[in-house]
Input
Amino acid sequence: MAVDEDKVMEFLGRVVTDGGAAVAGLCTSLGDRLGLYTAMAGAGPMTAAQLAARTGLHERYLREWLAAQVAGEYVSYDRDTDSYLLPDEHAAVLADPTAPTYAAGFFTMMQALYGTEDLLMDAFRTGQGVGWEEHSDALFAGTAKFFRPGYAGSLVADWIPAMNGTERRLMAGAEVADVGCGYGWSTMLMAKAYPASRFHGFDFHQPSIDRARELATEQGLADRVSFEVAGAQDFPGDGYDLITFFDCLHDMGDPGAALHHAERALATDGACMIVEPNASAEVEENINPVGRALVSASVAICLPSALAQHGPQAMGNHAGEEAMRHLADDAGLHHWKLAAESPVNRVYAAAR
Ligand SMILES: C[S@@+](CC[C@H](N)C(=O)[O-])C[C@H]1O[C@@H](n2cnc3c(N)ncnc32)[C@H](O)[C@@H]1O
Output
């Protein structure tokens, strides 16, 4: 069959664009970690020398970095004044970690993922997993940084109010377990909003729990938040009014057993909040930028993490609502609803 040369060139163009984006991603990460976007945010047009004076970094490197930012249209350039501008709209995405649109965490995660490429190659050959703990700190920090803005924008404002009766219980004083809590931003966001309640974050990854404890102290929340190393199948305590799983249930080797344990640990009328990536079980429905990012993350992080736990079920992050609902039903959580949705997450409420 004759190859359509136009289609070859069109696809080549697309792959070159993606390659350029991959290299540029390193520059984005550098700009984020070195505080370059923050230094430019709201500062108006500036020359490379002015950016160097502001950041204490070397001007020659900054000129190169700025040229790359202009090439990617992240920063605009004025030839007459030889100055560069980070538009306010771009600052909301790259310079302000408190903005719900902050997306720089994505690039911190990338730092870790290329580092595990050799382990992934072995895993593809052997069928074994790559455990969460086998990644570098950049994955743990990047994951927290990536998910936090979405939680900060929606968790208290939209997701909890969408769970029948849960907001009222949290305001009155409830016991909450946040399972697979990582650095614990979800736990702390809830703790800030509901001071009468007590929050217990659990994760089987010691370094994440250590960091969560530090952050809770820094945030002045240590009086109502505790963090403990524990697995999803055996975390301590019972009588919880709310048990949450933020972007972690599908990372587990036995998510069904985790839900069984949660069902046993719930108070009468308690509920589980299960937050999962907003990717579809139908592969062709993920042909969009978020779907592509999520499913690619499943190849590199989620599936290998679950396989490393040698459980009966490695779901990947796009198993879909029906698969999750089935697991919950099996665990005795028969009441199920899609409570809320964002471009990145779907939020399910599950109860007896
Ligand atoms: C993608 S991260 C999400 C972390 C955090 N919930 C967030 O939203 O930022 C998945 C987390 O699940 C934890 N995890 C995976 N399997 C677990 C298990 N079986 N028991 C407890 N934690 C687990 C990992 O250590 C990791 O912190």
Notes: The chain has a mean pLDDT of 97. The domain at 105-351 is CATH 3.40.50.150 (Rossmann fold). The longest strand covers residues 266-277. The beta strands are 76-78, 83-85, 175-179, 198-203, 225-229, 240-246, 266-277, 335-341, 345-351.
